[in-house]
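Continuing from the previous page of notes. For each protein in this section, the sequence appears first, followed by its structure tokens. Read the first protein now.
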Amino acid sequence: MNMNKKLSEMSLEELWELFPIFLTEHQTCWNEWYAEEEMILRRVIPQAERISHIGSTAIGFIQAKPIIDILAEVPRGCELADQKEFVENSGYLCMAQGTDRMSFNKGYAENGFAEKVFHLHVRYAGDNDELYFRDYLLEHPDVAEEYEKMKLKLWKKYEHDRDGYTNAKREFVKKYTDEARVLYGDRY
């Protein structure tokens, strides 16, 4: 692979090769990094109703990819597209944009991951299944341990295939998200 290529010029396969999936023990700094980034995002997206730490880095007792996942929920009357420029000006790269969801990355460099890596999901309030799944894992350590074991099995198989890795976890995540929604009702 030509390391002089810009990230935006790389194929999906080249990006997956440069940014492989790997898991590591929970790091206490992840909560600190989230808190610092949340303060930045509150200034960048002042209309956000809620900003939340989601994903496995929010679960303090399982291994995770060292990427801090953040969910920012904005009111339904707000135009998501209006947030894009502000988020990009704070160092994020827009990876996907639809009418009701946008995804951004920060901490990806031409030579690999930076020390701090973030995935930001900007959505309308209520589009927040990840909060239910997170809370379910926090309150059901046995399920969290099962999730960790599954991720460890999938890691090497999908090391250079993020879509495959995500798709292989989809049924498990949906099952426990659905259970959480029934258990917690309208928590969020």
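Done with the first. The second protein uses the same format. Note its length before scrolling.
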Amino acid sequence: MTAKVVTITSGKGGVGKTTAVANLAVALAADGAKVVCIDGDIGLRNLDVVMGLENRIVYDIVDIIEGRCRLRQAMIRDKRLPELYLIPAAQTRDKTAVSPSDMIRVCKELRQEVDWVLIDSPAGIERGFKNSIAAADSVLVITNPEVSAVRDADRVIGILEAEGKGSPQLILNRLNPAMVKKHDMLSAEDVLDLLAIKLIGVVPEDSGVIVGTNRGNPVALDPKSRAGQAFRNIARRMKGEEVPFLDLEAGDGLWSKLFGRKS
């Protein structure tokens, strides 16, 4: 068993990065994979809340690095999926408590234990970002279809390429087809033209995401959720499967024109 390490990052905060990590982890684990999530946002942890595990934290990633616990002791098992684990961030320390080499060492140990390691990167391009991408085999950049978020994502993509991480893949989050039709929101095609990287998934605007996040119950667990289905499809594409994109354009054919039947 050799895990694949994937970092999910963004230039701008508030675009749904932590929610995406939780949902992709749930989707992979529900499909039989052994998954560990690492919250890389030292000092501002939130992944534990989104996953509904905030009351079960004993140790965190800084405790592992500073030798106060073993790796296994800090891995919190999910309540619903026995092959899903979380390593939380430290809430009372800052990002200097972890170095890129520390993250590489932790991930090296995890590679022998699990199938996937998903790292939730803090927004921005400072120390926490560098820590979070250090061990990554691949990177997913998430953005909303907003000009400021796309511009920040473009900057992150350039940094990732300069750091030798190759071209990341894109998750477009919170797309509202009705707003796109009225030209009140960037379309998926607009965003792809601006960023020029491969699209791995589009997640539609869905009020159920907020409800699920507040309850610690990721929507990827809900078979009726459109956003949940989008996250499950992204997880399948991460594994190399060819999965058609959801038809978010209410049957007018635009989506299939943009991406083709096998996108």
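What the second structure shows: The domain at 4-260 is CATH 3.40.50.300 (Rossmann fold). The radius of gyration is 18 Å. We return to this in next week's lecture.
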